[in-house]
Design brief:
Aldehyde_DH_dom; aldehyde dehydrogenase (NAD+) activity; NAD; 2 domains; oxidoreductase; EC 1.2.1.3; seven-stranded mixed beta sheet
Length: 516
């Protein structure tokens, strides 16, 4: 790029040169620099929170239906720039272009939902137990929202925070992933041209340690009222602890070890299709990616055979083409996946490709379509025979690898599904409604799919997890409004005298001894 990207605080660019320089590269051609970014420090994050605080009062006072019109304008701009934004996503994070188009559409869908919520930020009129007295409730914005997002969904997930936060009357400080800075810049430009006042949306390009230090200082100074974080369970726990010290409850959307239960009467062709998409789509780098397929022992061998066949037939390679998945997003994720591959032991049976590890001329994959030497491409891996005490069973892998474990009874399958302690997404393939509802009732996941994959979200359905996958907060739909507003109650006594609740209530005496 011809210019260095810098943070935007209060509508103004932070001068470049002061911060460390970070180069974001194309993971399919790692020598191709997509963006050069001047990284901000902790003080910059604090300044961004100050700018948001200064802008928030005026933004709060813009009537909600008008804020909804700004959201509508964002949605129209996203649709007008859909192809261009998707191309940036494909180039910078290696997401196949068809998937990138779907991700951009998710922003537009989110805007389409929330533009109407500007006219529906309803409170309630509540009857009082006193005469000549009325009770009301109101939704008020929380204030300043700091959103910290990962780069595997570099534009869709930020919209889940930023669109409803703005709609509710909050000002936002957004810290995107530095390895997805070009995506963040394009996203910000679309939002800025929708008419947002200066300071209402601020963007801070920073690394993790500086972000944490800045957030800590901003919380101490009372500049942040809500933190949203999408990322790893380990970092989410640290952010949760930090916010807890300031009596705040963050919105945490963390990792997943998402199970798929395949019963003895399941449609195996459909189950394999779901496993292929959720296990290897986006190179397994989704929080909702399939972790372990828990398959009834009577169909396990056939399931593994079919999944192996489908995975070997799938095209992996250049994300600009028609591929199942492209490269891993960044070197840091490739290094992490190399560690995961070390968890495969001699008692495991490995399927899915002509090799394991990084695809290269010396470790080729049949049907690969791309320049293997240029990018961060990895073989898909199916590991049969994983056990509950395996590292591969217990931990999120964030790469193109799927474990398979057998079960005998549904009780055993549910116990295995819950064992890793995550609780984001779970799936069951069955034709038995009783099994569906028994599974739904006892699975720990915040999202359950029936005869569908573990991956997939819609803008009007709550998204979020429990346990190691989050603290119970939900994104999307009307449910996210509770993250970005606080309820305020008001009582208005127009009787002209003091009426004391529970003490001055009119008593009506029933004859409870009456019998027919």
């Amino acid at each position: 790029m011809s210019t260095v990207l810098t943070s935007v605080i209060g509508g103004a660019r932070v001068p470049s040169g002061a911060g460390r320089l970070y180069r974001s590269t194309d993971p399919s051609r790692t020598t191709d620099v997509v963006a050069e970014v001047s990284l901000a420090d902790a003080d910059d994050l604090v300044r961004a929170c100050e700018a948001a605080r200064n802008a928030q009062d005026a933004w709060r006072d813009v009537p909600p239906p008008v804020r909804g019109q700004v959201v509508a304008a964002i949605g129209r701009l996203v649709e007008a720039n859909k192809a261009a934004l998707a191309r940036v996503v494909t180039r910078e994070v290696g997401k196949p272009y068809a998937e990138a188009l779907g991700e951009v559409q998710e922003i537009a869908d989110t805007c389409a939902f929330f533009l109407g919520e500007g006219r529906r930020l309803y409170g309630h009129t509540v009857p009082s137990e006193m005469p000549d007295k009325q009770l009301f409730t109101f939704r008020d914005p929380v204030g300043v929202v700091t959103a910290i997002t990962a780069g595997n969904f570099p534009v869709a997930v930020p919209s889940w925070y930023i669109v409803p936060a703005l709609l509710c009357g909050n000002a936002v400080v957004w810290k995107p992933a530095e390895y997805a800075a070009a995506c963040a810049e394009a996203f910000y430009q679309v939002f800025a041209h929708a008419g947002l006042p200066d300071g209402v949306l601020n963007v801070v390009y920073a690394d993790g340690p500086e972000t944490f230090r800045g957030l800590e200082r901003a919380l101490v100074r009372g500049l942040v009222d809500k933190v949203g974080f999408t990322g790893s369970t380990e970092v989410g726990a640290r952010i949760g602890e930090l916010c807890g010290r300031h009596l705040q409850s963050p919105c945490l959307e963390l990792g997943g070890k998402n199970p798929m239960v395949v019963t003895e009467d399941a449609d195996l062709t459909l189950a394999v299709e779901g496993a292929l998409f959720s296990g290897f789509g986006t190179a397994g780098q989704r929080c909702t990616s399939l972790g372990t397929a828990i398959v009834h022992e009577s169909v396990r061998d056939e399931f593994v055979r079919l999944l192996d066949e489908a995975t070997r037939a799938a095209t992996v390679g250049d994300p600009a083409g028609d591929v199942l998945y492209g490269p891993l997003i960044d070197e840091r994720f490739a290094d992490g996946f190399e560690k995961v591959l070390g968890w495969i032991g001699p008692r495991h049976a490995v399927h899915g490709s002509s090799g394991t590890g990084r695809i290269s001329p010396s470790n080729p994959r049949d049907g690969f379509d791309g320049d293997a030497e240029a990018g961060l491409y990895y073989h898909p891996v199916i590991v049969d025979g994983v056990r509950p005490d395996d590292e591969l069973f217990l931990h999120e892998t964030f790469g193109p690898i799927v474990g398979v474990a057998p079960y005998r009874t549904l009780d055993e399958a549910i116990a295995l599904a819950n064992a890793p302690g995550y609780g984001l997404s779970a799936s069951i393939y069955t034709t038995d409604p009783a099994e569906v509802f028994a599974f739904r009732r006892r699975i720990s996941a915040g999202m359950v799919s029936v005869n569908n994959s573990t991956s997939g979200a819609e803008a009007h359905l709550p998204f979020g997890g429990n346990g190691r996958s989050g603290n119970g907060g939900r994104q999307s739909g009307i449910w996210v409004l509770d993250q970005f507003t606080r309820w305020q109650s008001m009582n208005w006594d127009f009787s002209g005298r003091l009426q004391k609740a529970q003490m001055d209530v009119v008593e009506i005496t029933p004859d409870l001894g009456f019998r027919l």
